[in-house]
Write a structure and sequence with these properties.
With 131 residues, the chain is mostly helical. The protein is built from 5 helices and no strands. α2 crosses α3. The radius of gyration is 29 Å and the shape is rod-shaped. It starts with 11 loop residues before the first helix and ends with a helix.
């Protein structure tokens, strides 16, 4: 069975995790080499709790000794990941706006129905009185 290659992953986090595993690098060692504040920051980054910014790419490129082509691929993976996050946020915002719009429409519709019922009852009462 061959060792996974750099291109085996389409997520920059998985690329880093795979590299760390192959090179027996702990979170603490990686943080020290990158000058990161601590293993918790790296854990959040690799778990997806924190966003992977392009500013982190040069440090990881150097740490993993990536070739120029691999560095470009890694940067592209980071950019795709960021775009995917932005798309997800935009879709969530759109869904939220649609739900709010539906809620407003429901309230408006309910209000119109109540107004129409009140008007109908009032007209029925007036008609009854006239008879």
């Amino acid at each position: 069975m061959s060792e996974p290659t750099f291109l085996s992953h389409d997520d920059p986090r998985e690329v880093i995790k795979s590299w760390m595993q192959r090179h027996d690098m702990s979170y603490r060692k990686v943080c020290m080499k990158l000058g990161m504040s601590g293993p918790g920051r790296l854990a959040n980054l690799l778990s997806g709790k924190d966003r992977f910014s392009e500013g982190l790419v040069p440090g990881f490129v150097q740490l993993m000794s990536l070739s120029e082509a691999e560095a470009k691929i890694f940067l592209a993976l980071v950019q795709l990941d960021a775009l995917s996050d932005e798309l997800g946020q935009a879709q969530e915002a759109l869904a939220r706006v649609e739900r709010e719009d539906q809620a407003r429409s429901t309230i408006n519709t309910r209000g119109r129905l109540e107004s129409q019922r009140a008007l109908a009852e009032h007209l029925q009462q007036e008609l009854t009185q006239l008879r």
